[in-house]
Amino acid sequence: MVKDPTHSKPRIVVIGAGFGGLWAARILARGDVDVLVVDRNNYHTFLALLYQVAAAELEAEDIAYPVRSIFWKLPNIDFVLAHARRINLQTRVIETDGEAIPYDYLILATGSITYSFGMPGVEENAYFLKTLEEAVTLKNHIICCFEAAAREKNEAKRESLLTFVIVGGGATGVEYAGALSELIHGPLVKDYRSVDFQSVRIILLEAADGLVANMPQSVRIYTLEKLRKMGVDVRLQAKVGEVTPDAVLLSGQDNISTRTVVWTAGVKGEPLAELSGITTGRDGRVPVRNTLQVPDHPEIYVIGDLASIKDKTQVLPMVAQVAIQSGITAAQNVLRQIAGQALDPFRYHDRGSMITIGRKSAGVAIGSRTYTGFIAWFLWLVIHLFNLIGFRNRMMVLINWAWDYLLYERAVRFVFPSEMPSGSKSSSCFHENGSDDEKPGKK
């Protein structure tokens, strides 16, 4: 994209079409500016429900929405499907896998990626749960494990196929453990009559002494008790030393033989900022001013998971409400900066946190109040439905939830053999004539 020297309107580029990027673009659309949103995907993903795709409760299309459709009625917003590789800070040009994109002002909303902490074997052997492709791949793999176990004669191999290890006791790990338990002990029991479900194990490993550390103590205790009642083997203070193709090696504990390791133990900032020479912390996040600007580069703002935003003495967590609020503030400050006005500091308003564990089971913390059980679960349903983008998506998710709730049935229990984008594992089950040592769902 070549900049038109006769064009007088400031050009603002937003990299990333997540929550922060979308809300920033909507605010910017109110100004006399040209806005360009850049993302490697042409859809927005509702990440809060990603684990339900991996648990065969929702289809990938139910939590994705076309970016261009979001901006139909905003004529000064355009979209480019491209992967931003590097930012030339001196020339103010974004280098992509296609055309170069110049900018006058830039909002970085690229989010976060899975972080393995350099743990041996994680990148090669674990499944991640951060993108739609990874969620579909994981769902396919789970089903493939049961397909293989249904005809496996060797007892040790069959037990390994039916052992599912989730590493990380944060919100994603807890929610996926609960959803996976309901999938296995509900619909899959009817699907695989030859499988002994007494031998199925779901193991949740957490290195700390409790689950969901950001939640109040009452919710943490409720979460632990509920998961154990659902048949999840929760192991606290369990530190992973290595992940191999066939096992998880623990520090000071017996190793676990398994073909499935789901890594939800850590995230870090997406590497675009670091690759562009912008200072980042050990977690890949960019320390920003209270106005969300990058030090030494006042034309660049960083929001959401990529921004290291201090609130008093703590850094704000990587959650959607931080992304939305920081996106709004950054966009307003860009417009103020263009108008020559003083910029406003970012002030975060905590609207509470919530986690769902399973059917009629959730935990919600709003201010000093906490709720657990059915009331919390109902609040979780309503809030997530409200925040989904697109009427069709809301209706499809509501129908799937109702179907699952009333009939104990999940209709997305199929495998689509396909090649996945870079960084993902193959989603097809191994063929009958394949190697006995090949893991289901991988190549």
What does this structure look like?
The chain has 443 residues and is an alpha/beta fold. Among the domains are: 11-40 and 82-114 and 268-339, FAD/NAD(P)-binding domain (3-Layer(bba) Sandwich); 122-265, FAD/NAD(P)-binding domain. It has helices at residues 19-28, 50-54, 67-70, 122-125, 132-149, 155-161, 171-184, 187-191, 217-229, 272-275, 320-339, 374-387, 391-407, and strands at 11-15, 34-39, 43-45, 64-66, 77-81, 84-88, 93-96, 101-102, 105-108, 112-114, 163-167, 201-206, 232-236, 240-244, 247-250, 256-257, 260-263, 267-269, 286-287, 293-294, 297-302, 307-308, 310-311, 314-315, 353-358, 361-366, 369-372. The longest helix has 20 residues, at 320-339. The chain is globular and about 70 Å long. The chain starts with 10 loop residues before the first strand and ends in a 36-residue tail after the last helix. Residues 418-427 and 431-439 have low confidence and may be disordered.
Give a quick precis of the structure.
With 443 residues, the protein is an alpha/beta fold.
